[in-house]
């Protein structure tokens, strides 16, 4: 994407760095997130950012080995915006002072008041009609604080525990805030980012129409006249990837739909009908359910499940790559959040959230190169690209479905009996959501069969059947999420339907956990 102005986000380990990228993408600004320990002078010179953002992070700038940006970031002549730890880094490096003191931490909602100074970076903030009472809600999450600003900086906003909540050095186009403008609880945070990219001179020219054209050209250049196989799951991501690649290279693409026995009710038939009959793509329907379910027998650890499924996917692809005769590339619907969540910030395993079956490259023995045209996109951007490609709106709007399928909605050991119960219960749940007209309001909804049985009474008889958990969340990009507030009427009716219509379930729970602290899926 070198033909676009590019913004570099240097990640210092914040849990919400991805939200910075989302705010910028919403402004049609192309940006990339890179960990601080992979950004050096050579990287900056090659990347040529038009602006830089320093993210937040959990470290203290005065600790041994504290994360730092390369010195050349400050001499590159481009605007910089520091967020939370990013502000503290700027002050620390440029001659200010950061301390940890009693009573100066702020976590959660806070309010910032303006000083007598004004600057275009704060356009739309602090309405003048509010006069001396003007203030803006922000979200703070800091233990350390700036106690002395660096030379050249001035103060534009203060909070009760952050006297330098908003600072700027206008001559160098350096801006720094102690709060997190990327999160929902800073209502005018998006305006701050918009002001920053305007001041930096971004044209806002990164659209899905442009991405489509560039991605097609990139696919053609990468693939040439070689054959490609595409791992098609039937979900939005792999489907958009398949249609995009087919538009680029036509029948050089063969889709391999792996039926691993972990799909929803009737899903295999729907996928085959859409892509083989409607789009007339070369499609191999690989029914490998016996292979996958056999390998998963007795497995209850979620990471082992994911890695087993990922390994078998690669084996199946390798087999069918040989069958199509000389395929040189494997296409996948890998997304940016998959990449971010699967790569440890520090390079070690301690902060990896979970493994994704389609991230991490391919074994050398496979002899295939990856084509991943969605690797730079968030989920909502993939949907927008699907609209550009003319996919049916009802299909684009489908809830996300994980690559490991029902394996991670069946905590504990997987059995054919539990999968059959889960499929039927999930179908009733989704039918209820559609019946109430809620499907498009919800980011993702599904049922999960729990690794427990409970006592019940049905028809004056005792039952000892499985418990079911229902999950529904709202989100923009899947990086954060909140549970959907169903009415008690909906939940009661849905539980009754499931228990009455699905043998093997006698108790239903609703999961009210947000992300964080939970993840969207149970495993």
Give the second-level CATH assignment, the architecture of the largest domain: 3-Layer(aba) Sandwich
CATH topology of the largest domain: Rossmann fold
CATH superfamily of the largest domain: Class I glutamine amidotransferase (GATase) domain
Describe the sheet with the most strands: 9 strands, mixed
Which CATH top level class of the largest domain fits?
Answer: Alpha Beta
Helix content: 25-40%
Beta-strand content estimate: 15-25%
Give the low-pLDDT segments.
344-361
Oligomer: single chain
- What distance separates the N and C termini? 34 Å
Largest sheet: spatial strand order: 2-1-3-4-11-10-9-6-7
Structural class: alpha/beta
Work out the radius of gyration.
25 Å
Question: What would the principal axes of the Cα set say about the shape?
Answer: globular
Our count of domains comes out at: 3
Number of strands: 20
Please work out how many helical segments DSSP would assign.
Answer: 14
Q: What is the arithmetic mean of pLDDT?
A: 87
What does this protein look like?
32% of the residues lie in helices and 24% in strands. α6 links the parallel β12 and β13. About 3% of the residues have low confidence. α5 packs across α6 and α6 crosses α11. The protein is built from 14 helices and 20 strands. The strands form four sheets. A nine-stranded mixed β-sheet has the order 2-1-3-4-11-10-9-6-7, sandwiched between helices. Strands 14-13-12-15-16 form a five-stranded parallel β-sheet, sandwiched between helices. With 523 residues, it is of the alpha/beta class. It has three domains: 195 residues, Rossmann fold, CATH 3.40.50; 189 residues, Rossmann fold (3-Layer(aba) Sandwich), CATH 3.40.50.620; 101 residues, GMP Synthetase, Chain A, domain 3.
């Amino acid at each position: 994407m070198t033909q676009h102005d590019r913004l570099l986000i240097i990640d210092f380990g914040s849990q919400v760095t991805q939200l910075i990228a989302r705010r910028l993408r919403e402004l049609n600004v192309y940006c990339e997130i890179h960990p601080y320990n992979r950004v050096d002078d050579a990287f900056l010179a090659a990347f040529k950012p038009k602006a830089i953002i320093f993210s937040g992070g959990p470290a203290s700038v005065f600790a041994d080995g504290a994360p730092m940006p390369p010195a050349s970031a400050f001499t590159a002549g481009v605007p910089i915006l520091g967020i939370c730890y990013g502000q503290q880094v700027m002050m620390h490096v440029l001659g200010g002072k950061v301390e940890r003191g009693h009573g100066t931490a702020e976590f959660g909602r806070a309010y910032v008041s303006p000083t007598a100074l004004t600057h275009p970076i704060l356009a739309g903030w602090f309405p003048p009609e509010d006069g001396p009472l003007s203030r803006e809600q922000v979200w703070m999450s800091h233990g350390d604080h700036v106690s002395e600003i660096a030379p050249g900086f001035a103060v534009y906003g203060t909070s009760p525990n952050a006297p330098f909540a908003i600072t700027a050095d206008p001559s160098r186009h350096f801006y720094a805030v102690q709060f997190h403008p990327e999160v929902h609880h800073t209502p005018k945070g998006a305006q701050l980012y918009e002001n920053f990219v305007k001041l930096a001179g971004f044209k806002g020219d990164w659209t899905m129409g442009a991405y489509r054209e560039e991605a097609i050209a990139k696919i053609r250049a990468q693939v040439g006249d070689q054959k490609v196989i595409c791992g098609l799951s039937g979900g939005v991501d792999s489907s958009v990837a398949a249609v995009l690649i087919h538009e680029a290279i036509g029948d050089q693409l063969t889709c391999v739909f792996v039926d691993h026995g972990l799909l929803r009710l009737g899903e295999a038939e729907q996928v085959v009908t859409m892509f083989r009959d409607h789009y007339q793509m070369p499609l191999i329907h690989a029914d490998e359910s016996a292979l996958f379910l056999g390998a998963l027998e007795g497995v209850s650890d979620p990471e082992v499940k994911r890695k087993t499924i990922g390994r078998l996917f690669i084996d199946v692809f390798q087999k069918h790559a040989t069958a199509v005769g000389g395929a040189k590339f494997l296409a996948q619907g890998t997304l940016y959040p998959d990449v971010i969540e699967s790569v440890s910030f520090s390079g070690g395993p301690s902060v990896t959230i979970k493994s994704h079956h389609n991230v991490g490259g391919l074994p050398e023995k496979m002899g295939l190169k990856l084509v991943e045209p969605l690797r730079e996109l968030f989920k909502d951007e993939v949907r927008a690209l699907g609209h550009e490609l003319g996919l049916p709106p009802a299909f684009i709007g489908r809830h996300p479905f994980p690559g490991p399928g029902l394996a991670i909605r069946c905590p504990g050991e997987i059995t054919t009996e539990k999968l059959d119960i889960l499929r039927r219960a999930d179908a009733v749940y989704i039918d209820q959501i559609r019946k109430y007209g809620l499907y498009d309001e919800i980011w993702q909804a599904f049922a999960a069969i729990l690794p427990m049985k409970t006592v019940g009474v049905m028809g004056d008889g005792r039952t000892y059947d499985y418990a079911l958990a229902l999950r529904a969340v709202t989100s923009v990009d899947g990086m954060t999420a909140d549970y959907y507030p169903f009415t008690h009427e909906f939940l009661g009716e849905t539980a009754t339907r499931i228990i009455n219509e699905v043998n093997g379930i006698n108790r239903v729970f609703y999961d009210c956990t947000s992300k964080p602290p939970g993840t969207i899926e149970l495993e």
